[in-house]
Amino acid sequence: MVSNVPLPTPGKDRVLFAVENCLLSVEAPPEDSLPQADISLQPLVQCLDVDNLIKLFTSVLVEKRILLRSNK
């Protein structure tokens, strides 16, 4: 699915796409600023136990690639 979403031009374009009933937006940050995420982490925190949550955030901090998979 990710390969089907075009990359936006940094700081200019916004790409919208739908996954099931959810409309998602992808926007590249300007080249001279840090990216921002305007999403809630509450569903993720509710789904993961403490050990997996710690593993996830450790992976984020050391900039590992992360793939989340769910049946829901």
From TrEMBL:
Sequence ranges assigned to domain UDENN in this UniProt record: 1-72
Identification of the protein by name: UDENN domain-containing protein
Native organism: Brassica cretica
